[in-house]
Amino acid sequence: METKTETREYYRYDEIRSWPMVDGWSACPDDSHFRVSIHSEAQLRPSVLIGRGAEIERKAVVGAGARVGSEAVIGPWARVGAEAVIGAGAVVWFVVKVGAGVMVEYDAVIGSNAVIGPWAVIGSGARVGSDAVIGSGARVGAGARVGAGATVDDEAVIESGEVVESGEVVEA
């Protein structure tokens, strides 16, 4: 009789930190294909969930209850708030601030020094430029582009595929 090994999408950080290191990655002893890269200077709360192949870089901080999807990257000095969700393949570059409860959907990219306010939603494949500010509860639709230095006010909505030019201000 063949036994099936359980495949998990996420592991809690408090489980991962006891795993052995293999070629610079923390490797799950029960699933050789589940590896994550967490820099020794990153700060994660024990209740953080981390997906396969995720990378959390130097000095990054990930808040309690946050979830980092498979193949997602949290750059150096980035801060991800409590209960935030960083989707599969999403990239949060360095010195980005992601507020509590934010949803960054799969394959979205947040440029360096951007600020994403609490409870905002960044749609799949969206691009938020460096130094942009996305207000609390704002929504950036799938595939939308927010240029460098742009500001999107609290509760404002950027439609899917819409382009906000660099330095532009979008009001609610």
Task: Report on the architecture of this protein.
The protein has one helix at residues 13-16; strands at residues 10-12, 21-22, 25-27, 35-38, 43-44, 49-51, 55-56, 61-62, 67-68, 73-74, 79-80, 85-86, 91-92, 97-98, 103-104, 109-110, 115-116, 121-122, 127-128, 133-134, 139-140, 145-146, 151-152, 157-158, 163-164, 169-170. With 172 residues, the chain is mostly beta strands. It has one domain: UDP N-Acetylglucosamine Acyltransferase, domain 1. The strands form 3 sheets. The protein has a 10-stranded mixed β-sheet, with no helix packed on it. The protein has an 8-stranded mixed β-sheet with strand order 1-6-9-12-15-18-21-24. The longest helix is centred in the first third of the chain and has 4 residues, at 13-16. The N and C termini lie far apart (61 Å). Mean pLDDT is 92; it is low at 1-5.
What letter string, H or E per element, gives the SSE order? EHEEEEEEEEEEEEEEEEEEEEEEEEE
Instruction: Give helix % range.
Output: under 10%
Which blocks of ≥5 consecutive residues have pLDDT under 50? 1-5
Number of domains: 1
Q: Strands of the largest sheet, in order across it?
A: 2-3-4-7-10-13-16-19-22-25
Largest sheet: 10 strands, mixed
Percent of residues in β-strands? 25-35%
Q: Number of helical runs?
A: 1
Distance between the termini: 61 Å
CATH architecture: 3 Solenoid
Compute the number of strand runs: 26
Structural class: mainly beta
Mean pLDDT: 92
CATH superfamily assignment?
Hexapeptide repeat proteins
CATH class: Mainly Beta
Report the CATH topology name. UDP N-Acetylglucosamine Acyltransferase, domain 1
Please state the overall shape, judged from the principal axes of the Cα atoms.
elongated
Q: Which radius of gyration do the C-alpha atoms yield?
A: 17 Å
